[in-house]
Specification:
Elements (H helix, E strand, L loop, with lengths): L1 E5 L3 E5 L6 E7 L2 E5 L5 H14 L5 E3 L10 H4 L5 E4 H9 L3 H12 L14 E3 L3 E5 L3 E7 L8 E5 L4 E5 L16 H17 L2 E4 L5 E2 H21 L12 H17 L1
Parallel strand pairs: 4-5, 5-6, 6-7, 11-12
Antiparallel strand pairs: 1-2, 2-3, 3-4, 8-9, 9-10, 10-11, 12-13
Helix pairs in contact: 5-6
The structure holds zinc ion.
């Protein structure tokens, strides 16, 4: 796990697996933890590291309902989890799915020593909407569907930080998962564009933190890829820096999803 400070009030942890990001933000004596790292020892380390750095955790937030972003309660079992309305609906409609997928991942990857995951009574945040942090600040909650059927992005305008979930990744091409949609994904990218313009730092769900210029460049590449995917299917060229075997497998999956949606 890597850790990176963005200014004095944001810490970003990047898991050794899938480079999944987990972002701690603080204002006064309140703080949120957005999404999660993955391995048990990474999660176990979080409370100590955050306490030492003086980052309180008053609540957990998730960008979307995929299991790899929902593990914060393993580190903070009594903290409440907040998520967008669409994610709350998804979690309610597929009870136990995150736990089952986590178990499958642990079995396949020989991960031992995991605490059982309980999401508790998650709270649905209105989207678009605002969420107070400390006495002076508000996070903006923006809709971000397309990768999955659900999702939000969190903008902290006073710090110039955007945490966008599984969009704008430097390591992963746009991934249309089972209930996702390429057209909804494109709409989300167009909605994120003005937020990226306001941001000094963009934290994608997977991969290194980006400055605003690099995030805008990835956004352009991803729009071009998705437009080509919708027009040309399998022939759509992948973004230059994301053409590995793993990315080609995601592309093949996307081609099937787009064909099935027509
Ligand atoms: Zn993810």
């Amino acid at each position: 796990m890597r850790a990176l400070a963005l200014g004095s009030d944001v810490l970003v942890f990047v898991s050794s697996y899938w480079q999944t990001t987990c972002t701690a933000i603080r204002a006064g004596d309140e703080g949120f933890l957005i999404d999660s790292v993955i391995y048990p020892e990474e999660l176990e380390a979080l409370p100590g590291v955050l306490e030492q750095a003086g980052f309180p955790v008053s609540g957990l937030l998730a960008t979307h309902g995929d299991w790899d972003h929902l593990l914060g309660r393993e580190a903070f079992p009594t903290a409440a989890l907040g998520c967008g309305e669409s994610t709350a609906q998804r979690l309610t409609s597929e009870p136990g799915a995150a736990q089952r997928e986590l178990r499958e991942f642990d079995e396949e990857s020989y991960v031992a020593g995991r605490r059982p995951l309980s999401l508790g009574a998650y709270q649905a945040l209105p989207v678009p909407g605002k969420l107070a942090l400390g006495p002076e600040h508000e996070l903006e909650v923006h809709p971000a569907e397309g990768h999955t059927v659900d999702g939000v992005a969190y903008l902290m305008p006073w710090m110039g930080v955007l945490v966008c979930g599984d969009y704008l990744s430097p390591v992963e091409i746009p991934w249309i998962s089972e209930h996702g949609s390429a057209t909804a994904y494109l709409a989300t990218l167009r909605r994120l564009a003005p937020l990226v313009e306001q941001a000094d730092h963009v934290v994608p769900g997977h991969g290194a933190v980006l400055d605003g210029t690099r995030a805008a460049a990835i956004l352009g590449e991803d729009v071009a890829y998705l437009e080509a995917l919708l027009e040309r299917g399998a022939d759509a060229p992948l973004p230059l820096a994301r053409r590995s075997g793993a990315q080609r497998r995601i592309h093949a999956e996307n081609v099937g999803r787009v064909a099935a949606a027509v």
